[in-house]
Write a structure and sequence with these properties.
11 helices; Rossmann fold; two-stranded antiparallel ribbon; 2 domains; 5-stranded parallel β-sheet; 203 residues; alpha/beta
Length: 203
């Protein structure tokens, strides 16, 4: 490889894997409006973020159920039926991952993900074997876009920031990586990712 990029870091959710709590909750409510009201009322995205930070599911579920007892059944569903939140792999992006693997690029992963639920995803998808190392927020108790988790990733890679490429679907995470000198791509679609990688002469 003559390209200055010597290591490539992928996010999971929204880049390689479709994840959406609505995949589960559509099955729990009679109408989309009821589902959206629940997600809004309990501030689902903020509540779910604590699991990415390493809070145990049992603790987070018990706390929110006490706060919203009329939603307790639906809150508990996230713990008992979490696998149903997973969609399919994003096949075009996985194809690119495999192409990069065949080209010899060392591949890493950096994801905001609960350490409790990640094994469920790992059993479902077969592409995780492409990564030399995976850093999960739920294991290290730091989340993107915090600077520390990117610094930890660089330490594990053992290369300077300018030799690394980061691919993520969240603007804040991309900006945080760029602030450290990591070349970064904001993921929109597999086709756009392919074009971006070609522009960088990686593909």
């Amino acid at each position: 490889m003559t390209n200055p990029i010597q290591a490539i870091i992928f996010d999971f959710g929204g880049v390689l894997i479709e994840w959406d709590p609505r995949n589960l909750y559509r099955q729990c409510f009679q109408t989309p409006e009821q589902m959206e009201r629940f997600l809004t009322d309990v501030n689902f995205s903020q509540w779910n973020l604590q699991f990415d930070k390493g809070v145990p599911f049992a603790e987070g579920i018990a706390e929110l159920s006490a706060q919203f007892p009329h939603y307790a059944t639906y809150i508990h569903a996230l713990g008992t039926r979490w696998e149903e939140t997973l969609g399919d792999s994003i096949r075009g992006a996985v194809d690119i991952l495999r192409e990069l693997q065949r080209a010899g690029y060392p591949l890493y992963a950096l994801s905001n993900w609960s350490a409790e639920t990640f094994p469920i995803a790992r059993r479902k998808f077969d592409f995780f074997d492409a990564f030399r190392e995976i850093v999960l927020s739920g294991e290290v108790k730091m989340i993107k876009p915090e600077r520390g988790i990117f610094e930890l990733m660089l330490q594990k890679i053992g290369r300077p920031a300018h030799e690394c490429l980061f691919i993520d679907d969240a603007q804040a995470n991309v900006e945080a990586a760029r602030a450290l000198g990591i070349t970064s791509i904001l993921f929109h679609s597999p086709d756009e990712l392919e074009m971006d990688l070609k522009a960088l002469k990686i593909l």
